[in-house]
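Minutes, project check-in
Item: structure for the 313-residue chain
Input as provided by the requester:
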Amino acid sequence: MSTNKDTAGKEDNEVSVCANCGKGEEESDKLKACTACKMVKYCNRECQIAHRPQHKKKCRKRAAELHDIELFKQPPQLGDCPICFLRLPALETGRRYKTCCGKVICCGCIRAPVYDDQGNEVDNEKCPFCRTPTPDIEEMTELERKRVEAGDPTAIYNLGCDYRLGERGFIKDYAKALELYHRAAELGYAGAYTNIGYAYDYGQGVEVDKKKAKHYYELAAMKGDLMARYNLGVDDLAGNINRAIKHFMIAIRGGDTDSLDTIKKMYTQGYATKDDYMKALQAYQVYLGEIKSEQRDKAAAFDEEYRYYESGV
């Protein structure tokens, strides 16, 4: 097959001709773009294979560029507390998942006092969102089972953790844990991708595969998981400082103090600039401004288990 001289060298998705044979849509079936780079089109699989030798270098380069565009986008945040409507803290002690209603509620609203009809403060023994009484262990297990059956990604993820760690009466089963993590990930739970990556990183229920581990860490990071984003930054420290800093900055905007501490160390050791460190500090201050409240401060002062940000950062 000969390449059309008018389109030779033009690898532009706007050119509606086959990159190999030069046929346009009027001469062939509907053209399909290269799924990796999106730069060229082909009328069929045979043309794509024939054109591969001269296209593969540019294809790989553009595919890598497109991948990085997606990878370094600012990912979605955790969302807001459904009661006070403030941004949820990144620190796990700053929020609670309620099995009764499937809501994630901030520490301030969890700890906020409840009043009876006469205005007297009473013990908070009910979910602050759905007002379900606090369940005992057996009731909690049954609630979790119902949430899993209903397709709640957080409940499915938590059950996966029970199997991975062999906790709360569950026998350790890596294969079952991975099955549940995949279900939770498909339903949008970012941390599930991180745990799948961890399984491939350390051979928990699967053969060790560093390439697959990185793939799942990247999926988790793009969906907003801070641990995965931090791990990617650490991996890049040995070979690409600028890339590592980009990862850390994204994580800091999400509230990750490990990334902030790492940029601070890089600055003191000469691997990051003063401007890098100042931008990191400013990003973290913006995050604090979005999560701080008097009610959350009172909860944190009442008990360390309600701490919602790292002090002294």
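Outcome recorded: The beta strands are 32-33, 41-42, 95-98, 103-106, 114-115, 121-122.
No further action items on this chain.
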